[in-house]
Specification:
By secondary structure, this protein is an alpha/beta fold. The protein has three helices and five strands. Strands 1-2-3-4-5 form a five-stranded mixed beta sheet. Strand 4 (about 100) and strand 5 form a beta hairpin. The protein is globular and about 55 Å long.
């Protein structure tokens, strides 16, 4: 008799640690590293040492996440409060291939951010 249990596969997880600053002078290097690591599964980006990120750094992460293979995603972990605030303002986790883990809890993309979902592409207004 054939088993009807789940099929389990071990996937390779790539982990990158970022420290210092990501800005226009090094954003391309960060993007290339994410893409190189994302060939076979999720990429865990440890941001616990990241002290600053500007719009060029955000764009590099967004481009890299958008160019990962179907089996990959970008998992942001360990961000400092100042970096997390920039991510919140920029809506970095609105992409279905970017997931943030904050306080040990994942923040997954919402239905409106997934392609083809009702309301996809629309951004909610920022309350002040």
């Amino acid at each position: 008799m054939e088993s009807r249990g789940p099929r389990l596969e071990i996937e390779q997880l790539a982990s990158l640690r970022v420290s210092g600053e990501i800005d226009m002078s090094n954003a391309d290097t960060v993007e290339a590293a994410i893409l190189a690591a994302g060939g076979h599964g999720p990429v865990l980006l440890d941001l616990s040492g990241l002290t600053f990120v500007d719009s060029a750094g955000i764009q590099a992460m967004l481009r890299a996440a958008g160019n990962l293979t179907d089996r990959s995603c970008l998992v942001l972990h360990g961000e400092r409060p100042n970096v997390g605030r920039v991510f919140d303002l920029m809506g970095i986790d609105q992409m279905s291939t970017i997931h943030r883990v904050r306080n040990g809890q994942p923040r997954l993309a919402t239905a409106r951010s997934r392609p083809g979902a009702a309301g996809a592409g629309r951004r909610s207004p920022v309350s002040r």
